[in-house]
Protein: 3-oxoacyl-[acyl-carrier-protein] synthase-3
Amino acid sequence: MSDTYITRVAQFLPNEGVLNEDMETYLGYINGKASKSKSIVLRNNGIKRRFYALDREGNPTHTNAEMAAAAVKGLFEPESKEIGEVDLLCCATSSPDQLMPSHAVMVHGYLPELDAIEVVSPSGVCCAGMHALKYAYMAVKVGDKKKAVACASERLSPVLKADQFEDEVQQLIRLEQNPIIAFDKDFLRWMLSDGAGAFLVENKPNPDGISLKIEWIEGCSYANTEEACMYMGAEKGSNGTLKSYKDIPSDELIEKSILSIKQDVKLLGEKIVKLGFTKLKEILIEKGVDMKDVAYFLPHLSSYFFENKIDDFFTENGIPIPKEKWFTNLASVGNVGAASIYMMLEAIFNSGALKKGEKILLAVPESSRFSYMFCLLTVC
Structure:
């Protein structure tokens, strides 16, 4: 089997960055009032800027598939014919523009430079981007493909807009209940961002610059023991089960904001670090990896709130990573879900700082039902 390399990394961010004080200009005010939880959430998550595929009036400027295609094109020189050599396209997202056709074929539709090639759409949430990379990695490694593209993108801003919650607020007013959107819904309005990232995966290193050899990619899910923590298009019952939007009356879909994204914040805090990073320790022992040999640690963080919790776990479990080895760009680009790890890697890959022989450890926790992906890369 062939060694496999990430030879180029690109990203696409829509429009200008949106600062904290301008967020409700884009997303709107629910019931005409500023959010009471916004300042609390932002203080904890540490995000200073994010990007929306919206203009200041809340009108869409890009589709998810368009952003993904723009990131893919960014891997190649303008007017280059090389993009036509791509023989596999893997595109992941948790926020496709439609339920059908699949997200990846829609991205393919924006890339007429490509041939009639294999196209794959891994589903999921934050881990989906890593599943796209693993499919590309395995296809190249076994010799089935030579030049694969893995891509991840998100466009969640439309479901964060105030008009998505207005009918629910008006229903609460009619019932004379407190017309404040529950924290499990309001919480994520101040966390999420839009954008796309892409990797070129090949069976030989880039002759004109650095490459990242993929040593291994490992993942796991705890859905066999844990209930859903983040969900969309469903209603969560008191026993932890999810009721599909397909089984909810159409009027309740709007009144209860069923199609908005929600987070069980209590469950998130209790589970997200302990489950996944216990697994990471097991993987490192199995693979014979010493944290001292890791030059860069790239954790996908939904919030800087979890940074110290992960650091404490590492220290308590005998696998400390000095903070100077950590890298995240959460503060400047926001939480872009499946695309976040692509954007972090893009920032250091194209920084000029990497040296041959350095090892990079990627860690992607996904709170939806507690899934995790980990990857070790070597600069060459």
Residues 265-287 form the longest helix (23 residues). The chain has two domains: 5-158+191-212, 217-222+263-379. The chain has a mean pLDDT of 94.
